Amino acid sequence: KILIVYPGIHSNTKDAYSGIVPAKPKHRVKDVVCNYTPEEWKDLLVNDFEKSIFLKHPRMAEIKKMLYDEGALYASMSGSGSAVFGLFENLPQLKLRTGEVMWND
To answer: What's the whole-number mean pLDDT along residues 65-72?
Structure first.
């Protein structure tokens, strides 16, 4: 199951890109997804945008932590931001702040 949380925060793409330092990833996404379980992805897949975006928008970091606290197998910010998603065996019942939106599939 996938749960997506949009906290009502706009992450400016230009700002997001200006906050990262390009580096060769330790692991290719395809290799990780094909050869490891979602529980192992947490230590292997890194969204380089998270560091700078989470500093500017701490609520997004809180949501990622909340997803893990609620049993997410893997959680990450989507692309350069604005939403955070979690992969779950069973979807949790989350209490969100006013203005935050949640989708699941």
So the answer is: 95
